[in-house]
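step=encode ok
step=design start
structure_in=
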């Protein structure tokens, strides 16, 4: 009897820990809708018909900054493909690196940008941070990099 009770309690605990509620407050686009092996009609995508994200540069060096400074940079890109480019998410490698990205579609031939703000509070020395983008391009992920040398002010 005691063994059955322990099994039931263990099962209930395991079940309750393994189930996570669905995040209703997320503002990102599901990655399920950005896989583009074919067109919306279901036909295979023709060469050049898929979106293509081309950056002016994917790495930026802020140089030397003073600890506590907030610096920003805009990574400019162009959709050189033949269909709308959609960014479903942009995630910084830490809370000190905050990206802002276009929430709507970037049309073929259109330019846009990913703005990145870096807060150097509490950081020192050589720092490298990244922003990972998830898009409907191939490959679906892109990584932007920022670097800096952070000087600690003398007191």
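sequence_out=
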């Amino acid at each position: 009897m005691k063994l059955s009770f322990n099994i039931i309690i263990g099962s209930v605990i395991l079940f309750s820990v393994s189930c996570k509620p669905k995040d209703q407050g997320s503002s990102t686009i599901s990655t399920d809708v950005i896989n583009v092996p074919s067109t919306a009609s279901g036909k295979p995508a023709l060469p050049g018909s898929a979106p293509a994200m081309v950056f002016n540069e994917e790495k930026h060096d802020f140089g030397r900054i003073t600890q506590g400074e907030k610096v920003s940079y805009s990574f400019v890109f162009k959709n050189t493909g033949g269909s709308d480019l959609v960014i479903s998410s942009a995630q910084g490698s830490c809370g000190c690196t905050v990206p802002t990205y276009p929430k709507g579609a970037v049309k073929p031939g259109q330019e846009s940008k990913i703005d990145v703000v870096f807060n150097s509070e509490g950081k020192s020395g050589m720092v490298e941070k990244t922003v990972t983008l998830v898009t409907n391009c191939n490959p679906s992920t892109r990584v932007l990099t920022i670097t800096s040398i952070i000087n600690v002010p003398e007191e």
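step=design ok
step=annotate ok -> The chain has one domain: 47-155.
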